[in-house]
Structure prediction request, 293 residues.
Amino acid sequence: MPEPAAFAAGQRVRVRAADPDGHTRAPRYVRGHTGRVVESQGRWPLADDRATGAAEPRVETVYTVAFPARELWGEGTHEVTVDLWESYLEQAAEERA
Amino acid sequence: MSGEHASSTVAVRVRRLEERLVAAGVVGDDQLDAILTKLLNGASPVNGARVTARAWTDPGFKERLLADANTALPELGLSMTGGIQEQRLKVVENTTEVHNVLVCTLCSCYPIGLLGPSPSWYKSEAYRSRVVRDPRSVLAEFGLELPDDVTVTVWDSSAESRYMVLPRRPDGTDGLGEEELARLVTREGLIGTAAV
Prediction:
């Protein structure tokens, strides 16, 4: 399990591409894609664990992560922000200047 | 994604689920009624409109609202504690540069306490799948044409946060008081599918 608040605002993160067997709240359209952390929303019980009825669900930091439309769809000028639990995310390489 | 939320089918499923839960002794009718009453009593877009009008007329409140909406809401006698656990509220401000619009692509998360029950289109697969991909076209279908230089941000509430859009105060409303301003605000303005 990742350490608390592993990511900071402004940091680039990639949504893990894994497709879990059970319930998850990582929308499919952001999996495998890279975005930027907007802010931390504090720590919340992991939806994947709560869905199994686990007595003690893991509690993780949830992040607001912004994705440029081009990253998600290959086109568009808008931005989509998604709320993602820490274990859905991994560190991504910083963009080259 | 689950399919269309036809309310009649959902109502039947909810009733069956309630019966099973009550029969199994997991929850009592009285408990269910108490939770629903607490959640739905006073749940109305009038609340979101009051918050908006206060933010338009009180810069200090607006600053507190945008920084931490949960601690600002009690100033108007409101809170996000109506459900099973307190939900985090994030208010996102429309400006001349940015227009915000809300969606829940996974299901139908929505700030019921501030906006009332959600419109049926909010739960439709068409809205949920299209607004993240091509928000400008979707907004245009709602009659909202945005200038090209305005950036659109779509907020997909996929976890425990709920969102509310703070619309821009319309021009020519300088003479209006807080109550009159609140009457200008629509549910669609608070979702972001209308200007105000």
